[in-house]
Amino acid sequence: MSAGDPDSAFTFLSRGASIQEFKVAGHNIVQSFPNASLYKTHNAVFLGETIGRTTNRIKNAVIHNLNNNAYELAANERPHSLHGGSHGWGKQEFEGPNPVNRNGKEGVYLKYTSKDGDGGYPGTVECYVWYTATIEEGKTILEVEYQVELVGDECSETVVGVTNHSYFNLNPPAPTTEGTIVTLGTNDVLELDSTHAPTGNIVPFPDVPPPGTAFTLGPSEPVIDHCFVIDTSAPASCPLDTRLLPLHTIATLSHPDGGLHLEIQSTEPAFQVYTADSFYLPEVRTNDSSIQVPARGKRAGIAIEPSRYINAAGKEEWRGMCKIRRGDLWGARNVYRAWKE
């Protein structure tokens, strides 16, 4: 899909409604595989995937007191469940991409029906993902919209959360993000215990400066895999469908080599930042043993994942952000603006 300029193009896959290509000034700024089949066989790190049925970690891979039951989930990051489990939405085939005119903009949509019991989650739900692309004032703009609805009658309530897990590299084809200049919309994070589950406290992250202050990614620092909190009142005030809320800038990225820039805005109350320090993808060889895709290692990209709070589905005091009943809509909206100076 083109934003109106051949150097600003997008490719979306039915596998996980994934973003394979986000092209700006002729450069793909997301880590990807060259063909769709490799996403089925080699994508252990969630490249470009739509994450669901919930995002991030669910503590101890269990949800208590939902429909008066406890639901055990796939513990794919023991002891927790990560990104919907080992067979989450990013590993599923969506219907689409299908062309659509959304709010006066050309784009595509994809749909996935998650059956009752998928990954341990109750209830049949439908997820829609819309991607629209435009160019405005020389900037390539990708707008992403999510909607989830409980459509089955197996239960009265369930939990959901959706985001995208692209890894951005603003200096392609450099092997790492070293030298990337980052500014975040907050330095408040959910404090984590030794297992990376939230304690419930919100604290400043020591290695990130105050909001609006830039810092530079080094070869091995700072190490970030935390949920940053834009709205500290979200457990009490966050609507299920945030799409009508104002967009806020959660992150800006740029790199002096090549002059590429990215601004990310969202209606969501939080966002995960992952500097990919455990990232590894082995090389892929063809049948004649020539290298098709070289190996990629830690800090090959940085993931910025707008979302609700980590473990919101598992913590009853936070569950209002992600618990839906029949007739409810869960929704979110993210906007990515990229350009070259």
Would you give an account of this structure?
With 341 residues, the chain is mainly β. It is built from two helices and 29 strands. The protein has helices spanning 37-41, 234-237; strands spanning 2-5, 8-12, 19-24, 27-28, 49-51, 57-58, 62-66, 69-72, 81-82, 95-102, 105-114, 125-136, 139-150, 157-159, 163-165, 167-168, 181-184, 188-192, 198-204, 215-216, 225-229, 248-254, 260-266, 270-274, 284-285, 291-293, 302-307, 323-325, 330-340. The strands form nine sheets. It has a nine-stranded antiparallel β-sheet with strand order 10-11-12-13-29-23-22-17-20, with no helix packed on it. A four-stranded antiparallel β-sheet has the order 1-2-3-4, with no helix packed on it.
The biggest sheet, with number of strands, parallel, antiparallel or mixed sense and barrel status, is: 9 strands, antiparallel
What is the percent of helical residues? under 10%
Q: Write down the overall mean pLDDT.
A: 96
Please give the number of β-strands: 29
As a whole number of angstroms, the C-alpha radius of gyration is 19 Å
Strand order across the biggest sheet? 10-11-12-13-29-23-22-17-20
Could you say which structural class the secondary elements and strand pairing correspond to? Answer: mainly beta
The low-pLDDT segments are none
Strand content: 35-45%
Silhouette: globular
Helix tally equals: 2
Distance between the termini: 23 Å
